[in-house]
Amino acid sequence: SGCAREIRLNKTLLMLQAFVDESLSFEDQKDYVLAGYIQKTSVWMQFIDEWEAVLRSDPPLKDGFHMHEAQSALRGGNRRNGSAYFGWTIEQIKQKIISLSEVIRKYEPWAIEVRLSRVQFEQVCSPIVPYDLRNPYIFCYFGLIGKLAELPSRVGIEDKIEFIFDEKDEVSREASYLYSFFKEVQPAHLKDILSGTPAFKSDKEVVPLQAADMLAWSLRRKRELRNKDEVNIAWNNLFPRDCFVLDMTDEALKNIADHMAVVEGIEDVRTRRGSIVLPEIKRKAAPNINTAPVDGNEFTKIIRNLLKMPPKTRADSKLGTKKKQGKHFP
Q1: β-strands 31-40, 110-117: how paired?
Q2: In the sheet that 16-24 helps form, which strands lie side by side, from edge to edge?
Q3: pLDDT per residue over 65-97, tens digit each?
Q4: Peptide bond into 279 cis (omega under 30)
Q5: Which residues, in sequence order, are bridge partners of residue 116?
Q6: Given 221, 241, 253, 314, which is the most exposed site by the fewest CB atoms within 10 A?
C-alpha cells in the first residue's frame, strides 16, 4: 500500500515509530487524552498490511476506521444511507472492531497515554501560561514525548523514536515549531533517541493512526462517569504490552503554573499570539535567564529556552499562522 511504502522508504536508521491520536471528553472534567502505540518499524510494516486486509474484508471500510463512528453505528446512529456502515448488521460492525483490535494484540505494540483535565487547565494554567501555549494539546504533546523517552530505560531498547501524530492543522504547526526547543533542553541520552521533528499525517494515509484512534477513544471513554459501565469489545486487545501513563493531575498543573509564573518576562507573552518570540521579550528576560535555578520542570525549561531564542518577528514566526494488561508506568 502507499502507507506501507511511505514507512518503508523512511529513514532506514529509524527503528521505532510512535503513532499518536487525541480524544476529547465533554463530560465531567472534560479530559484531554493523547494516546498511541510504539513498535519497531519492521513490525509496523507487517501491521499495516494486515490492518488494511481487515479493512478490505467483506464488508469493506473504504475510508478507514474511526472508533467513534463504529460505536455510533452499534447504537444505531451511524447506519444511514451514505454513511460508512450503511447496510451493515450489528454483528458485522462488532466483528470489524474485534478483528482490527486483534491485529493490535498480534503485533504487540507498547501503549502510551497522557491526559489532563481541560476544566483544571482553564482554571489553573490558562491565566498564567503564554498565549502560544494556551492549548492543552501542546502540554499533552510534550508530556507524551517526554514520557515515551523513558522506553529505552524501562524495556531495554535503545533505538531512535520517530513520532507521527494525527494532523491537527494550526496546532500541529505550533507544536512542530516548539519541538526543537523542547528537544534542546533534554538530557543527552534522551536527545539521542528523539529523531528529527515529529510528523503530522492523515489517518486515512497512515493506518497505524487508526489504531491510535481506537486506543485514545477507549481510554477517554473509560474514565467518563456516564460511560464507566459501557462494554468495549476491543478493550482486552488494546494493551498487549506495557502501557506508559502520564496523568497530569490538578497538583501537577498547579506546579507547572507556579513555575511559569516566576519566569522573567512571562507577563509580556500572555495576551498576544506569536509574542513569545518578539525581540523585546528576549531583551527583557535575558539578564535573568542564565542565573535562574533549574527546577527540573520541562515546561518551564521550554519557556526559558524560547525566551533565549534569536530575535524574530511575528511575521517570521510559524506561531500564529493560519487487560492482559501490561504494566503501567506512572
Answers
A1: antiparallel
A2: 199-201, 161-166, 16-24, 31-40, 110-117, 243-248, 328-329
A3: 999 999 989 887 666 666 788 889 999 999 999
A4: no
A5: 32, 248
A6: 314
